[in-house]
Amino acid sequence: MKTPKIGPMILAVIIVSSLIFMPLSVESMTISQSEVYKASSTLDPNIFQGILMQRKMLENKQYLPIYGSSELHRLDMYHPTNYFQINPDGFTPFLIGRAGMYSLVQFLNLASNADLLKNRKIVFIISPEWFSNTGLSESYFAGNFSEEQVYQFIFSHDINPGLKQKVAKRLLQFNFVRHNGTIAPLLEKIAKSAHISNFTLFSASLQGHFTSKVLQLYDAIKMQKVTPNYYPSQYQSPNKKLKGKSWSQLEEMAVKDMKATSNSNRFHINNAFYIKQIKNRLEHFKNYDVHQKFGHSPEYGDLQLVIDLLKEEHAKVLFISLPFNGSWYDYAGVSQQKRETCYHKIVSEVHKGGFQLADFTQFDNKPYFLEDTMHVGPEGWVYIDRAIRNFYNEKS
């Protein structure tokens, strides 16, 4: 009987161990700058649910990260990705957002690379629709949840323990998190919400560290496969008509575009969307949202967690507060008073945190800022582009 060769086995163990315990800084080196540029506007959810591409992006001041939700997918010609490609100003927008990426989801994105936030300029877009009675739903959170980011949060030493405790308690309010046999005990330990046996904690910690590293390796592999235009149907090539135009000229162009494409209804909603999604069911939407208050929502607490993290890490942030489509929400049963309450609470939270706010809620009852019931349209992007440019060019 042949004696097994120990050398190759030892070498295999060394290779696997080195991969498993490789630091993030080394793993992110597998991503080239050309891949970061490709990823900047792709809207590939693998980027949002990972760590490494965002880390590589934050390390390079060429990129200005824009955190938001589904409005980022409205890639019309005035969208920041297209506008700043035609009218460059020293930076490239990097989009981080899709439907359901409310404040708590974005907290985990930001917390995953908290050590890179100091003095980093970022843009954070707030949608008032987030602040419903229930806030972030179980289904939206589950669809955008990242175990890799949660493990990074759990094992991070860059976040204040008091803030970590608040976030852990919030995460444990979601059923699918509480039923995760590895993540839940680790969060419960941070939250100090239950007695966890030393054996359970040791086992969860060991498994958590191992799973975290495996997920990071998988993240590194996925980032080699990122391709531009994850949603090709929503992409528009940059339009040279934007070149060198003044803001008033751009606004005039955008309003003209919207007037031509939203003239079929009194809500100033894009014709194609209105005809397909609303026209034949208009009566169904009468007062359908009347139960929503928008003044009391778990989302206010989640936004505060984001603000606390960014303040703690000394990030330089421009928050952008979007309006409701006032005429539509009047029809849906959400009064002007309810909407104003929501707006004022957002302003209060951001200003208490000491951050800048580009407040566009004055467009609540004015047409053309939005293109449908909630998403930014051409005129809205013109105003947002100007706010982003002014923010970026401010001296630190």
TrEMBL record:
GO terms, biological process: lipoteichoic acid biosynthetic process
Pathway, per record: Cell wall biogenesis; lipoteichoic acid biosynthesis
SUPFAM superfamilies in alphabetical order: SGNH hydrolase
Any single Gene Ontology cellular-component annotation: plasma membrane
A Pfam family reported for this protein in Swiss-Prot or TrEMBL: DltD
Family as reported in the entry's similarity comment: Belongs to the DltD family.
Name listed for the protein in its UniProt record: Protein DltD
Species this protein is from: Sporolactobacillus shoreae
